[in-house]
Design a protein that fits this description.
The structure holds 2 protein chains of 2 kinds. By secondary structure, chain A is mainly alpha-helical. Chain A has one domain. Chain A contains 7 helices and no strands. Chain B is rod-shaped and about 60 Å long. Chain B is mainly α. Chain B has one domain. Chain B is built from 1 helix and no strands. Classes of the chains: A mainly alpha, B mainly alpha.
């Protein structure tokens, strides 16, 4: 429980760093990165679409690792961390889907198409949203934690498929890292990496804030049990 | 240009909504912890 007392300070520092990095990221998007010749300003959606997608992969990898740790160590905090990572991952991948859809409307003249990358991403989003719904079912104890851990590991099967889909199958979705330089100017890459860093800082802030909230919930439950025990004595 | 603004707005609404949800949940839980700790001390 001691850790929960230093979390607010770390959270404040992380939140400040994410806000500063986001401001620099926005400057890089609007003023530093040049306008793309074919698509124009709409291409700039890419600078937050890509970091959102990448950090959602990191989140789901975190769910998988935390779930393995639950089975290995049986410690409750890994189960909590898996839930927190899944929640932030669903938020980020949801926003990546929305921004991708808006980009698709401008680039392909359609809000949605059943392309391998888009379809596997949508399946991934539904899998983790379902995982969160199952987590909300009140199955406590070691058995519940193990069940959630197995689900967290199985759910990860789709994530490498999403990443590789644009390379494995015929896809209209651009695979930026597959081609050398990705057809981007050096200034565009600067904007990409600043925004990846900014969204990473925000990701860490949200995960820590949610984890801190889970700690508060545990303190409430522990205090309620103590009061109940005292009342019964 | 419009699409860029819509996408940007969607992202900040999504993140902002989640941050508000977290802030509200934290303030409720912190108030509850304080109440229970006072009650626990009285008992």
């Amino acid at each position: 429980m001691g850790m929960f007392r230093i979390y607010p300070k770390i959270l404040m520092i992380l939140a400040g760093a994410s806000m500063a990095l986001m401001a620099v990221g926005q400057y890089a998007i609007w003023y530093h990165a040049p306008e793309e010749l074919t698509m124009g300003l709409v291409q700039k959606i890419f600078y937050f679409h890509l970091p959102l997608a990448w950090w959602s992969f990191v989140a789901f990898f975190g769910v998988c690792v935390s779930s393995v740790m639950v089975l290995w160590t049986g410690r409750e905090h890994w189960d909590v961390l898996a839930g927190v990572m899944a929640e932030v991952g669903v938020l980020f991948s949801g926003l990546a889907l929305v921004t991708g859809s808006i980009w698709g409307r401008a680039a392909w003249n359609t809000w949605w198409t059943w392309d391998p990358r888009l379809s596997t991403t949508l399946v991934m989003w539904f899998v983790y949203a379902g995982y969160l719904v199952l987590r909300s079912a009140d199955v406590g104890g070691t058995k519940g934690a193990k069940m959630r851990a197995v689900l967290g590991i199985v759910a990860f099967v789709d994530v490498p498929l999403v990443f590789l889909s644009a390379r494995l199958w015929r896809s209209i979705h651009p695979a930026v890292l597959a081609s050398k330089g990705g057809g981007l100017e050096p200034e565009m890459w600067t904007a990409v990496w600043i925004n990846v860093l900014a969204w990473g800082a925000l990701f860490a802030t949200l995960v820590l804030a949610r984890y801190h909230g889970a700690g508060l919930k545990r303190r409430v439950e522990a205090a309620l049990i103590r009061i109940q025990e005292k009342t019964l004595q | 240009m419009n699409y860029l603004f819509i996408a940007n707005a969607c992202v900040w609404l999504g993140v902002g909504g989640y941050v508000l949800f977290l802030a509200r949940q934290h303030s409720v839980l912190e108030r509850r912890v304080r109440q229970l700790e006072i009650l626990d001390g009285d008992e």
